[in-house]
Design brief:
Length: 497
């Protein structure tokens, strides 16, 4: 009988009283790895109440002490890097190397959160009126909530709770019900690093649990990453309940290829950026736009993609793993079939993919289409599988117009050897994260993750300075001191903590 995973409430790992349980399956075998509870209304209430009460003391903990917690945490995450990656690979199916990358990208945010003191500095101006000075202070909000997707079960929770907590907030995490084991382990290590009870809570479940958090009067801010319809629901509901919301949603990322680009670089970057993690990355390249003569490279792209072989996470030769669920696989199969029916030319078809020894896995092989138009479902929908579609245009400006007309704006890239073309593209393209000869331009944590248009609802983005502003409020103090104020004696000691 698989075990039911506990929830972290008020500093304790507690068995849920939920009657409804969700199966967490191994996507390569369909084995049930564990059961996740759907948190009850009482458990949600208890978690928020504990976070609210912990906030009163946590906000008073000096900033350097909060930063030191992050230093201990990043060290522990590094010590447990392989163990976390193995757990993550089991429940997502990602290859071990890719699972390590997922954890690593999260560790980098924790390293950044250790710099919180300098990120939270306010501003001052002297003598803004006679004898009057003004200063701004940056203060935490209170209880923040994080709702995370299946595709990065380490990185995305770590985008959120370390920075929010370093800023002095408390946090309730509701990870994806499809892979909640890694987030639970991240929380265990956070407690081991010395996080006081109540500062982080972890609840499990789906829509009902999320809705209870979105509408809870004691929740101040909500961070969400996931699909478009859910992102819109989260943004609408959260803001209707007067909360601060940042919602990162789906994408359709184009890579534009100019004929002067380095052909071998283009092809290998396209192969990796489209099929890595079985295409289940919000920054995956799912559309290749070939400009002019570069379209002659498409047959060679098909040959290179055909060499990719999906496999089990323990198989070091596997290029990528299975899709997360049977439903996800069925969805991608439907889009592939519809694309063929709509007249797109399928150069490589991964629909009938088998992996020896794993007949039940959610496998899909690399798939490549050309002759796709912007009206086809293959272009309009986010596929989220190892499927790349090719469009062909005559000029760079046509390519830019195509990208700009797309409703999403998460990431895009241009491959070229021309500085002038690159400058024009990066300036004119209406997408929040642009790569020049870099296929997946995910910014490091000292910048922010800046998706645009239909890929993001809100204004302040994830991690970096923007996240610190999202998780804090600015208080300005205007002060004047009179000459006859009492004078206190000097303080002769240095505080050690
Ligand atoms: P999802 O929207 O199905 O689920 C995300 C979270 O929302 C989960 O915790 C889930 O339990 C919860 N949820 C699901 N349905 C809900 C509902 N009706 N009401 C309230 N909450 C609900 O997303 P997913 O399939 O787990 O993740 C894949 C999606 O995430 C893709 O669209 C991908 O592009 C997107 N994504 C975006 C980014 C980004 O930064 N823009 C990053 C990673 C993933």
């Amino acid at each position: 009988m698989p075990r039911t995973i506990p929830q972290l409430i008020d500093g304790q790992w507690r068995e849920s009283r939920a009657r409804e349980l969700i199966e967490v399956t191994d996507p390569a075998t369909q084995d049930v790895l564990a059961l996740a509870p759907k948190a009850t209304a009482e458990e949600i209430e208890a978690a928020v109440a504990s976070a609210q009460s912990a906030f009163a003391s946590w906000r008073e903990v000096p900033v350097p002490e909060r930063a030191r917690l992050m230093l201990r945490y990043q060290q522990l995450l590094k010590e447990h890097h392989d163990e976390l990656a193995e757990l993550l690979a089991r429940e997502t199916g990602k290859t071990f190397a890719d699972a390590k990358g997922d954890v690593w990208r999260g560790i980098e945010v924790v390293e950044h959160a250790a710099n919180v003191a300098s990120l939270m500095m306010g501003e001052t101006a002297e003598n803004i009126a006679r004898d009057i000075d003004i200063a701004s202070w940056v203060q935490p909000l209170g209880v923040c909530v994080g709702i995370t997707p299946f595709n990065f079960p380490a990185m995305i929770p770590l985008w959120m709770f370390p920075l929010a907590i370093a800023c002095g907030n408390t946090f309730v995490l509701k990870p994806s019900e499809q892979d909640p084991l890694t987030p639970n382990r991240l929380a265990e290590l956070f407690l081991e690093a010395g996080a006081p009870g109540g500062v982080l809570q972890v609840l499990h479940g789906g829509r009902e649990q999320v809705d209870a958090l979105l509408t809870h009067p004691d929740v101040r801010a909500i961070s969400f990453v996931g699909s478009v319809p859910v992102g819109q629901h989260i943004y609408r509901t959260g803001t209707a309940h007067l909360k601060r919301v940042q919602a990162f949603a789906g994408a359709k990322n184009h890579m534009v290829v100019l004929p002067d680009a380095h052909k071998e670089q283009v092809l290998s970057n396209l192969v990796g950026a489209s099929c890595g993690a079985a295409g289940q990355r919000c920054m995956a390249i799912s559309v290749a736009v070939f400009v002019g003569e570069s379209r002659a490279w498409i047959p060679e792209l098909a040959e290179q993609m055909a060499t990719l072989r999906p496999g089990h996470w323990k198989d070091a030769q596997a290029a990528f793993g299975p899709l997360i669920s049977q439903q996800a696989r069925q969805r991608v199969l439907r889009l592939i079939a519809e694309g063929k029916a709509e007249g797109a030319e399928c150069l490589l078809d991964g629909s009938r993919c088998e992996v020896e020894g794993f007949p039940q896995g959610n496998w899909l092989g690399p798939t490549l289409f050309r002759g796709v138009t912007t009206r086809m479902g293959l272009y309009r929908e986010e596929i989220f599988g190892p499927v790349l579609i090719c469009l062909e245009v005559d000029t760079l400006d046509e390519a830019i117009a195509l990208v700009n007309a797309n409703p999403y704006g998460n990431g895009t890239s241009l491959f070229t050897r021309s500085g002038g073309a690159a400058r024009h593209f990066q300036h004119a393209v209406e997408v929040g994260q642009v790569g020049i000869n870099v296929p997946i331009p995910v910014p490091l944590p000292f910048f922010s993750f800046t998706g645009w248009k239909g890929s993001f609802y809100g204004d302040l983005h994830a991690y970096g300075k923007q996240a610190v502003r999202f998780y804090t409020e600015t208080k300005t103090v205007t002060s004047r001191w009179f000459d006859d104020a009492p004078v206190t004696g000097p303080n002769m000691t240095i505080h050690l903590k």
